[in-house]
Structures are given as C-alpha cells and as structure tokens.
Give the backbone structure.
Amino acid sequence: MMNLLKKLDALKNDGRPIIACFPLYPPLALFHSMGLAPVVVWGLRGHVSGTETADRHLPSYTCSVARHLTEFILSDARDFIDGIFMYNACDTLRNLPEILTGQLAAAGRDVPFFHMHLPMTPRDQTEASGYLKNEIRTLITNLSDRFGVKFSSEKFQNSVALYQRMRELVLAVQDQAAAGRLGFLDFAEVMQAGAFMPVEGHIRALEDLTARPGKHNAGASKLPMDNTIGVMISGILPPQPSVVNAMTAAGMTVAADDIASFYRSYAVMPEPEPDPAEYYGKFYDDHYPCPTLLYMGDRRWAAFMDRLRQSGARAVIFIGEKFCEYEYFEFPYLEKRLAEAGFPSLRIEISIDDDQHTGAHDSRIAAFSEMLRGR
C-alpha cells in the first residue's frame, strides 16, 4: 500500500505548490505547465485511517469518496496542500469547498480555492463552448495571481505531450493486464499511485511495469486463458483487492474496465495545441462518457457497449459505491439494457467499512462465475 504522506512530502520537496483536485477530470496538464503539482484526491479507501474528522461535518449517508477526501485534506494532508481545485459534480461535492476552506482557515491554513464551472447541458442543445473557454482563461488568471506564475503556451504543449505519453503507456499496460500478462492489481496499483506523483514519475512507473510481464502482484494468478471467463468491470471506483482476488479464484479475469478513475479518465485525449481554452473545450466535449458528466448521458450506452463488445467480455460486474447518486441512477438502466442485449451482470455495492466484510461478495462472485460457466 502506498504511503500518501510520503508522496506529498516528496512533491513538497520538489518545490512545486501542491493543488488537491476533485472530482475526476481536472485540467492536469494546465496545472503541470504552470509549475504546480496536482494530486487527484479520489478513491482514498485503504489510505485514510478512519473518518473521525470528516464525520463531524458530513452525514453518515455520504459516500466514502467524499468522507475520505475530507478526512485526508483536513487531517493528514492539511499542512501539505497549497490549493484546492474542483469543478461542479454531485450535490455532496459541491458543498465540500466551504467545509474544507473554512476548517483549514480555522486551523491557521490559508488555502485558496479554485473553481471552474463545467456546463452540464447537452452540447447539441445549448452552445456552451464560449462559456467554458472563459472559465479556463479565468482559472489561468487566478492561478497566476495566487502563485506568481505566468502561463506559457510552449510549456502547456509540452505538458500535454507528457500526459499523452502517459495515456499511451496506460493503454499498453491495460492491454497486457487484459491478456493475462500482468495482474489487474499491478495495473491498479500503478494507476492509483499516479494520482499522487508528477506525470514524469507516472510515466517511469508505467514503463517499468510494461518491462516486467510475468512478475505479478496479488490478483495475477490466472487459469489457462481458454478456461478463464473475461468480464468487464464498471464503477466510479476500482474494485478492492479482495474483490479482484475473489474473481480470480472463481476463474474470471478483467477483460476490460469501465472505471471512472481508470479507463474513463484516459480513453480520449485531444492532440496538443497552444490555446488551453481550445484544448479543454475539446477535452470536456469529447470526453469518454461518464455519468458524472451529465451532458454526455445520451452517448453513455453506446460507448459502454462498444467497450464491452471490443473486449470480448462475456459479462459485466458493477462495482457500486454506496450512496453514490450517479450510480443509483445509472446502474439499473445499464442492467436493463445489458439483459436485453444478452449480457449477464452482477452488481456489488461497497460501503465505507467493507474492507473487513467481504465474505458475502466472495460468495456472490463465485455463484456468478458458476452461472456463466453453465450458459
């Protein structure tokens, strides 16, 4: 398990101001080009011990994503964070900035908050490109004023090129994992660590991973490929190691992922160009569909099925995050459409304390595998 505080300390020693970002798709290349160190504080289960501080400010029916990131920023990472960035998402996340900045100020930390409003209206119904471009330009101005850095078009294009290289490597590693040459947990470990390291370090970690097929971490043991059932996993967060190990023990392998913090984050990326407003207009308009990007709802099913069919997976396992309003709306619809298309599906809901209680999930996964073998 990675030590997030050590990673933050290493970033701090590099001299770049650390900006904590949420939700999933912040303008990372822009931050990098302006000398900042962005970290995506999403899916911190297993890296945050308890939620005592967060629970003073958030109700118990809040998802683990919000509770963990609140706990992390207000306790462990409080003295490391130099800024917080977010764009609009669910109601829970929309209310976090006031809580975070207020509590940090009470602790004597003047941490600036940077906000960008991402238009959520369908692009074929409302022209919002001008508004979004203005939001990007305003963000650049605010970052420049706060951190005393000037925007450079050349540096921005160089940063975009680095993230493009990272994306190429992620796709290559993902293909190795789907083919059984790497364990899915090896892939997941490097992806989650990448959220807390400079893109240059993430590139090196991915290059190291592609160079060592056959030397696997947990979750890598496979049945012979002709006996293994390929499934696609889908959800806001990746599955816990215990879930992946249960899938492996049941003779299933991850043939593809539709995980928000994994494939949906890097599936589509525009080519570098000098104007960040133009670049991020394309970045958000052409993004791989995700329920957190409400304006892409009409494209979601087609993209989901393309991913499923291209992977050759025989079924889908939904990794549900308890109290996630996006998944509560999306999963029933996808399950219905999958059944109509002849694809079985299994939904697993993970709560904040399920690290210690996985037996029920193991049994359902084993039964699902038996059902697939009997088809």
Summary: The chain has 15 helices and eight strands. The beta strands are 18-22, 37-40, 83-87, 113-116, 229-235, 252-259, 315-321, 345-350.
